[in-house]
Amino acid sequence: MLVNQFLFLGAILFCIGVYGVLVRRNLVLVLMSIELILNSVNINLVAFGAMWHANDTANLSGQVFALFVIAVAAAEVGVGLALVLMIFRNRQSIDADDVDLLKG
Amino acid sequence: MPQLLDKVWIVPAVMAASFLLILFFGKRAGTKATAAIGIAAVSICLVFSVVVAGQWINRVNHPPTGEALAEDIRQASGLTPQTPEVVEGEIDAATHDSGETVEGDHAADDHASDGEHAAAEGEHGDEHGGAHASVPPVVRTATWFEIGPIDFEIGTLVDGLTAMMLITVCIISLLVHIYSTEYLHGDVRFTHYYAFLSLFTASMLFYVMSSNTLQMLVGWELVGLCSFGLIGHWWEEKKNTDAALKAFLTNRVGDMGLIIGVTITFFAAGATSFNVLHINEYALSGAANSTLLLVGALCLFGGVTSKSGQFPLHTWLPDAMAGPTPVSALIHAATMVVAGVYLIARLYAVFFEGLGIGSSSFHYVAFIGGFTTVMGGALAFVQTDLKKVLAYSTISQLGYMVMALGVGAWTAGVFHLFTHAFFKACLFLGAGSVSHACHHTFDMREMGGLRKYMKSTHITFLIATLALAGIVPLAGFWSKDEILAGAQQGQENAYTAMLVMGLVTALMTAAYMGRAYWMTFWGEYRGHGTPHESPKVITVPLWILAICAVFLGFLNLPAWFNAPSWATTRFEHFVEPTFAFPAVEHPEFTPWLAVLSTVLAVAGLAIAYLYYERNKGPHGLTHRNAAARAGYTFLENKYYLDTLYTDIIAADTKGPLARAAYWINQNVLDGIVDGAATVFKKLSGVVYRGVDQLVVDGVVNGTGLASEESGQLLRRMQTGKVQQYAAILFAGVVVLAGVLVFVV
Amino acid sequence: MLALLVAQNIAFYVIAALIVFGALRVVTCKNLVHAALWLVMVLAGVAAQYILLAAEFVAVTQVLVYLGAIVVLFLFGIMLTRAKTGTDLDLDHSAAKKVGAGAIGVLLLAVMGYALWDEYRGEEIGDLAVQRTAQVSDSIFSTYLLPFEVISVLLLAALIGAIVLARRD
Predict the structure, then answer these.
(1) What angle do CA B501, B503, B507 make, to 5 degrees?
(2) What was the ipTM of the complex prediction?
């Protein structure tokens, strides 16, 4: 297998995630798109890890890194959804266009 | 005693310090302290002057030789002269003669008969450097400033003439200082007066020890300034200020000639130096352009004409009597007016060579001198003011001095300067004493019979009158007779015309002085109240001066009298320069001339006695005879010279010039100014509207507007929508990534 | 060996297709819950890719954490925010914005794609031996001990933060 396959997969996933972040109005959907991005990064990491593993068997950096990313993602989703709930409680709406108090 | 000859600048410095002290502290210190400062300073200067004279006499008796002599000569004439053969000649003459003794040469002066003045002339012909060793004056200079190759120096020159002038100025100034304590007692500007006296003395001393002509100019102007200030001392009365202005302005007219003369002599002497001795040497060496020398001498004489009261610029002197009497004594009799005579004496080589004194029998300077004597004497007859008589007498005597210098009798002229200072000062101070007693009037018609009341003043005045008239053996006789002998013998040719003028004036001098004396001291007192003798402070100076008038004449006892050599012609021996000095013929004492002048003097006194005391003679002639009346009126109006100067020359210059200047001012100058103002006003309006409001304000306002507008525009970017921000962020990422990937 | 490789490749491409399709559906679906479900498919696909890359522990962790917890969290979130459970037409921005975002995405893909093609062309992943979990834990607890501890603290912070934020006070 070529590394490029995984990397391209990761790139495509990333771009779809970016598209989703920019387009979706519902904040929960935005968080989901962020999950897509994180997963694309994970694929990249593991692919690179596998690539380097061929040279150095003891090196598991890619996988360990991916694990950490998963942990971070989990934390982020937790806090993110807590925030979304707060917004909903205060504004009764989680439309991204309604959260524009910083409008200049 | 250190050599004061080197440091003689201390003398005017002391007087200048006195001036400053009195100027700044006099008023606060009070009149007694001011007078004390002045008197103390002049006394110190007198002591120094005596020391200087002593040292000079010592130098003449033991002149420097060899190397020291050569060094002195080099220092004396300043820059390395253009004509080195002149200096070599001087060094040769000096070193050659320094071996000869003084006594041996004076022995050759013995003459048995008085008709041998031809032989005498031959004897005296080689006297330049022959009778005494050539003693260069002590010259010390410092460079004041430089312009190109020319060094402008400031320095001192000490020789016999300087020493003589120093002593004269200091003695007369001291006596005047003492006299003024009483005469100006209670005066409104006592300290001011003493300040000016100190300044005058400092300036005069500075003047007589100048080593170059520019410095002489400075001193000359300064003494003129002091004269102005002192004549106008009581400026509350207009006639005093008028007199002061007249003095100053008339002197200014002459000063033009002086300045031009100084410049011409500078160029005549090779355009290298203003040093007096350098100029003299250059004139003597024959390397100078003779036309330049002549013109220079005449221009310098212009300055002399005004300062020393020669015809036609003498008109200020009688008016200057408006000042206090001690001032008249000091300045307008003894010291300042002789500044011109001193100038001729100092730069004598220029005059001698320029005017050809040695070879002519009639030239401008001698003629003017002679004419002034006659003219001044004639005017003294028609004066009723005692001081004016003395003023015209001064003019007449100054004419004598100039005439003496004009005919080549250098020592005679300078010696007359010396003696005249003493007896004229005595006369003036005596007049002041008389007025002090007669309630401050000088009108002789209100005096009379004062000999009964004022013994000291009377005797001293009489002595001084006799001295002035030239009665043997008083001082005036010796000096005046030597002048007459100089005119009679001349240099190569006799100056007969001058002799005649001199003799006529001798008669006139005795006559008008007799008139003044008799009107004042004999007869009955015509004033009011009782006059009394003046206090000691006034009479003691009078006595001192009178005694000087008696004995000073013997300083220049002619050799004819077979006295021991240490007693004859002492004045000539020590005062006449031997360095850079032309070869002048010294006049021989001619007994018949001496007798004639004495007879004339006695005759003059007798005429005055008969006319005024005994009332003999044609009294009232002017009422009877039209010609006499016309002559009298002519004299009374001072030959209409004042009318010419003031009403004709000055007024005609003033009127049209003033009107023209006014027209220019109103039309041209004001027109320009107003026109410029109008133009600028219009211009500024244009600038205001066009530039200030349009451009500058436009820029400022525009900047504000631009900020506001751009702010309004940019504000829209901030929507508060996170996704928009994210979009921009990711767009930026794309750009950066592109840059990183494709460019880097 | 070759057969293995071929099998791996085929597996990869199939799973990749599923992933991409699922992701596209996540970002375009009009139904909120359906989007969550499509996310499940994406996540599962990614786990499968991990197995292909011989990163079994990561795959399992992925399933546990992502599919097990995070998706559930999402569903809770949807539920608690009273989202419309049917088709919701308001889920996207305007078409103009879609075009702009799409352009950004495409450009980004182009740039990344070029970089990848330029750099890693022909780079092969060599033979992959399956790592034992023990090896992974060895790595975590020795080389990456500090990040591990930091992550723990982070999770603690996130936990406390979420509770504090979402408290009904």
Answers:
(1) 115
(2) 0.91
